[in-house]
Amino acid sequence: MRTVNIFAQTIKSIIRDKYGLAGLVIITIIIAIGALAPYLPLPDFNSTEFHRLEPPSPRHLLGTDYLGRDLLSRVIWGARISILVGFVAAGISAIIGIILGTLAGYYGGLIDNIISRIIEIFFMIPTFFIALTLAAIYGSNIYMLMLIIGLTTWPVTARVMRGQVLITREFLYIEATRAIGASDFRIITKYVIPASIQPAIANTILQVGNAIMIEAGLSYLGLGDPNYPSWGRLIYEGQPYVDTAWWLSVIPGLFLLVTVLGINFLGDAVNRIFNPKMSQRTSL
Amino acid sequence: MSLARYLIQRIFQSIVVLFAIIVINFIIISLAPGDPIQFVAGDIAISSPEFAAYLRAKWGLDKPLYERLLLYIYNILRGDLGYSYRYSEPVINLILERLPITLLLTVTANVLAFVIGVLIGIYSARNIGKKVDTTLHVINFLLWSTPSFWLGIVLMIIFSVDLRILPATGLMNVRNPPQGMWLYLDILYHSILPVATLTLITLPLYFKITRDSMLQQASEDYVMTYRAIGFSENVIYRRYIFRNSIIPPVTMFGIHMGFAVAGAALIENVFGWPGVGRLLLDSIRTRDYPVILGVYVVIASSIIIANLIIDIIYALLDPRIRITGRR
């Protein structure tokens, strides 16, 4: 009941926030487009039956690509791929980050030392290149990409979570539960995590946008899944034709921009709602 | 804790981190499925097992993993990053050749983004709530959400394809390379688009951190005290708020400088900019393992050194760090 209330209240606060509302609207529209893709009257996104490089026309609202595939269909199916990759990868990243961040913050000592060193190492390497290397070496089907992005982006969440747990573990009521003999597992799952998770949630929303960007970057370098038209891949495929068919690259990029913008609006708003005083740095 | 001891401890920690990075990368790459010999030698490796065996022995790929790792670390300590499979050249030479080209792009863009971002951030914070602040804030959000490579393509379409006033790709005019001073001017001319792209992409970072930091300082109690005393707003901002809020963006600048060597691989790729980022991308595609590892070592070292410099500057400036050893 309490969680439901907090959730409803958060949504209310988001809607009251200009940026939060804009973000929510944008994301809802993009998700709706992605969800409706199979039911829209569109040609198959891999069908090559049309003329090549046709400019936008009533028949093909966004024209066709170098293999004669309908760009509108590919962009709309691309929404599905990008959103899916974004959410699953951010989910993986959040789970790892929250668990490790909580363990480090709660137990301190050696465990904290080890986890913090690992986080530190991650901040000293450009993780995009690690993702790139992994994608190049271990193959780049769409599920692999989600896993790779999740595995390389969790340290930000872990650091945020650790910081918050360091504060909440000192709360009196948590000390009280310890005093009456609750197990560590119970204290962590029932009290520490619920009390500390808000900044991690705000950060995870921003991570969705980040994951979509990373996937687009990998796909733009030709390391994405060739079977699915993700937006990054569409930009990659369109780039050789910038001088004759600029829309092939520009339009998928616009969709990418607007989606990430919506997520950043929302994430930033949630951040402000959860920490009205602290101006937190979660980007980078 | 004395300053010297603090610094020695930080340096020691940095070395440990650097070695951890080397070991992790080495293991990730070495456990990869597929044989680098196949990638380099292609069909010859299949038709001639002797040649494949020769290459394998030459590159030490016939030895067990731990032995190769130890050898690699030993060689790094001697300043030897190994030989490229593809170019048959020392890795360090390949990197050093491209480093100035990358730094021209990344350092210029980082400095520009810092200066512009901080100035706009200050301006925005001083006009909080007004239309100009809202506009700048939204533009900042837009840039923050823009994929760098896409922005590069859009700028290329506008300035090279449409207006035809700027070159689309490359470092210089290859067909007709100019001489002397004109060569540098030509490189400068070619760097306008990539530098502009990278600057625009990096800007939001500095804008946001400066604006947040200014707003936070402006809400501190000491500001109210100064107002009560009767200092003018200009003096309060210039002398106190600005001085206190410039630290976070400067830190960010330092961290970003560390990443400068990593380059902006995506942007280098868009504009055919022959820098370190491109070298890394090409090596990943062709499985030139020594080059991949070598570039990572150089990148990680530069980031660690940048962090160390930031720490030392802080330790010198802030006595609290010297005493507690904590930032």
How would you summarize this macromolecular structure in one to three sentences?
By secondary structure, chain A is an all-alpha fold. Chain A is 72% helix and 0% strand.
What would your notes on this structure say?
The complex is a heterodimer of chains A (284) and B (327). By secondary structure, chain A is mainly alpha-helical. Chain A has helices spanning 2-16, 18-36, 71-107, 109-123, 127-137, 142-168, 172-179, 184-220, 231-238, 247-274. Chain A starts with a helix and ends in a 10-residue tail after the last helix. Chain B is mostly helical. Chain B has helices at residues 3-30, 36-41, 43-47, 49-58, 65-77, 91-126, 131-144, 148-162, 181-218, 221-229, 233-245, 247-258, 265-270, 276-286, 289-317, 319-324. At the A-B interface, helix 4, helix 5, helix 8 and helix 10 of A face helix 1, helix 7, helix 8, helix 9 and helix 13 of B.
The value of Rg of chain A in angstroms is: 22 Å
Label the structural class of chain B: mainly alpha
Which term fits the overall shape of chain A?
elongated
Structural class of chain A: mainly alpha
Q: Oligomeric state of the chains?
A: heterodimer
Number of strands of chain B: 0
* Intertermini distance of chain B: 14 Å
Strand count of chain A = 0
- Into how many domains do the coordinates of chain B divide? 2
Helix content percent band of chain B: over 70%
Question: How much strand of chain B?
Answer: under 5%
